[in-house]
Write a structure and sequence with these properties.
This protein is of the alpha/beta class. It contains twelve helices and twelve strands.
Length: 298
């Protein structure tokens, strides 16, 4: 079926005549009439009946009009959806993130983003660094948010968004709570450490090596962040953690910060994406929103 002719038939029936259809579509009346006649010949059916100067749909015309109406309504919906997708207003967004951004940044960012872009459908997968890179490379994620300064593998580009400071923290009633001390004194405390391979543990040991100090004594070791912080809240040991992870507990007075002189380490938070490839519209919109949100927050 000639879709152009069907469109002219639909507009003629909807607007109540050839003249109005021709004016709306900016084509001549004879052209509209000719296309409708060609459609009737193609179908072997009469679609319009004349009553004086008026045109009325025949039974065949009514049947065809019902299908045409649904088809062109679907066309309009398709156009709207594609425009929304292009502008990032509508679409799925799959994010991979390591623990720190997944738990302390993305919930706030996504809640604010959804208030402005309700039709988007974000999903977050909390994974380790290696898995986040793998999901990007295998097209299982549109964007990844990573804590730590590890070099990205080939095919991935990193864009640093912020730097999160690392703090030394002790129980609230500890003798070093709020004190300004040197690193050697801090290293004499028993530490509660995360598992081997965690970025904060690696950075602490690297810091000791840089200053020619023995690594701290491991008093306790946990694989989870909450267990680590709760042990300090209960009154034992020191920890070396991200400010994002522990700042709420410090503000509440549950634990206390120790200010170690001449030591300032940061943990960069980066957005990662596939190299030489455009982000999907909704991913591009979300990354732009995150940058805007952080700029307003500083």
């Amino acid at each position: 079926m000639n879709l152009h002719a069907l469109k002219l038939f639909y507009e003629t029936a909807t607007r109540g005549g050839v003249t109005r259809a021709a004016e709306a579509l900016h084509i001549s009346q004879p052209a509209v009439t000719a296309q409708i006649r060609n459609l009737e010949q193609e179908l072997g059916l009469t679609l319009f009946a004349s009553q004086g100067r008026s045109l009325h749909l025949t039974d065949a015309g009514e049947l065809l009009y019902g299908y045409a109406e649904r088809m062109f309504a679907l066309e309009k919906e398709m156009d709207r959806r594609l425009i929304d997708y292009r502008d990032g207003i509508h679409g799925r967004l799959t994010l991979a993130a390591t623990y720190l951004p997944a738990n302390h940044l993305l919930p706030v960012w996504l809640a604010a983003f959804k208030q402005r872009n309700e039709q988007t459908m974000p999903t977050v997968m909390t994974v380790n660094s290696a898995s986040a890179y793998d999901k990007l490379l295998h097209y299982e994620a549109d964007l990844a948010f990573m804590g730590g300064s590890k070099e990205a593998p080939r095919g991935i580009v990193r864009e640093e968004l912020l730097e999160d400071e690392l703090w030394f923290v002790v129980p609230a009633g500890h003798r070093l709570a709020g004190a300004h001390i040197g690193l050697p004194e801090m290293m004499r405390e028993p530490f509660i450490l995360r598992e081997e391979g965690s970025s904060s543990r690696d950075m602490l040991f690297a810091l000791c090596q840089l200053h020619h100090l023995e690594p701290p004594r491991v008093g306790l070791q946990f694989n989870g962040l909450n267990e680590t912080i709760r042990a300090v809240m209960a009154g034992y040991g020191a920890i070396f953690l991200s400010a994002l992870e522990v700042s709420d507990y410090v503000r509440q007075g549950s634990v206390a910060r120790v200010f170690v002189e001449s030591v300032r380490l940061t943990n960069p938070i980066a957005a990662c994406m596939r190299a030489d490839e455009e982000l999907t519209p909704v991913a591009r919109l979300f990354l732009s929103f995150v940058k805007e949100y952080m700029a307003k927050s500083t």
